[in-house]
Design goal:
Helices cover 43% and strands 16% of the residues. The chain has 349 residues and is an alpha/beta fold. It folds into three domains: 107 residues, NadA-like (Rossmann fold, 3-Layer(aba) Sandwich), CATH 3.40.50; 111 residues, NadA-like (Rossmann fold, 3-Layer(aba) Sandwich), CATH 3.40.50; 80 residues, NadA-like (Rossmann fold), CATH 3.40.50.10800. Helix 2 links the parallel strand 1 and strand 2. Helix 3 runs parallel beside helix 4, helix 4 packs across helix 15 and helix 5 packs parallel to helix 6. The N and C termini lie far apart (53 Å).
């Protein structure tokens, strides 16, 4: 039996008990089996609302952890490959987050509110939750940041400095007077007394590779092209493009565009390839071809294997090699930060 045949058979066998979630960056051969496809925010919300006993997260580990945090007590979360991680999420840990908050307090005499990107571990989200902060995603970062800036407290944004900077600028803040930076050495670069936002030093290795020259080149090669990019890109790339936003924004913009239009898209290349295939009435080109190696670790063979593992559990087995769990206290604290994200994002303010 081929992996595809086994996947179809096991899905049919346990249709009501298993839900498959896939991030937009997954390849088409995985996406076609997903019950839910979206960015990290949408998958967190969908997993919390689902009724399945078993959730299979086709993405990277922090996404599976977030699903485990948001799931109810009876739901169990699995990932086809536990080694599918996120380099950005690994750029800050819970100890560094706590220490950074201490350093900011010592430098400016105020308690900073942490805003941590969804691309972070459950332990980091837990520290954020205990400190009264919120998780954010690229789709809601500006709304979350504006919400906390209104309180008058400084905001510590981690781990993605590119998304943090682009979002802060979008909120009207400026580099010299409003934005400071803090690194793993805990040195603060900027005016700590005046800063409204402190940015951690992290970045996405994929989006960090895009350049302003690539935008210029694709415009030269395709006159009339519209360029849209992800806000994890550098400021120069974002502000040389025609538009920028979350993966959901990129998807919606191209799908709703007029037939015959030409688009250059700066984000993970598996997504751009699928977007091009799904929009045959438009020309969709990658700004550059940069696939995410961790996302691509999820294969049909590994999806079949994890479904086989769940089938064994349903039949009374105990092996749970690919199950992702979060200890109850960490989950409870992380849930506070995720809950604030949902509350602020869904509020009509």
């Amino acid at each position: 039996m081929s992996p595809d045949e086994e996947i179809r058979a096991l899905i049919a066998k346990h249709r009501s008990r298993i839900a498959i979630a896939a991030h937009h960056y997954q390849r088409p051969e995985i996406v076609k089996y997903a019950d839910s496809v979206g960015d990290s925010y949408r998958l967190a919300v969908d997993c919390a609302a689902g009724q399945a006993d078993f959730i299979v997260m086709c993405g990277v580990l922090f996404m599976a952890e977030s699903a485990a945090v948001m799931a109810d007590g009876r739901q169990r979360v699995f990932i086809p490959d536990r080694s599918a991680g996120c380099p950005m999420a690994d750029m800050i840990d819970e100890r560094q987050l706590s220490k950074a908050l201490d350093c900011i307090r010592e430098a400016c005499g105020k308690e900073a509110v942490p805003v941590v990107y969804m691309n972070s571990t459950a332990a980091v989200k837990a520290v954020c939750g205990r400190a009264g902060g919120s998780v954010c995603t690229s789709s809601n970062a500006e709304k979350i940041l504006r919400h906390f800036l209104k309180t008058g407290a400084p905001v510590f944004f981690a781990p993605d400095s590119r998304l943090g900077y682009n979002t802060a600028v979008g909120c009207g803040l400026t580099e010299n007077s409003d934005i400071a930076r803090i690194g793993s050495d805990m040195n603060i670069d900027g005016d700590a007394q005046q800063a409204k936002v402190f940015l951690w030093e992290g970045y996405c290795p994929i989006h960090n590779r895009f350049t302003e020259d690539q935008v210029k080149t694709i415009r030269r090669e395709h006159p009339g092209i519209s360029v849209i990019v992800h806000p994890e890109c550098n400021y120069e790339v974002v502000h040389s493009a025609d538009g920028f936003g979350s993966t959901e924004f990129l998807l919606r913009t191209v799908k709703e565009a007029a037939p015959g239009t030409v688009w250059g898209v700066g984000t993970e290349s598996s997504f751009v390839e699928r977007l091009s295939s799904d929009c045959p009435d438009k020309t969709v080109l990658p700004l550059a071809s940069y696939p995410c190696a961790d996302m691509n670790k999820i294969t049909p063979e590994k999806l079949a294997a994890v479904l086989r593992e769940i089938d064994g559990i349903i039949r009374g087995g105990t092996s749970a090699v690919n199950e992702v769990t979060v200890d109850p206290q960490t989950a409870a604290d992380a849930r506070k930060a995720l809950g604030r994200m949902v509350s602020v994002t869904e509020a009509n303010v």
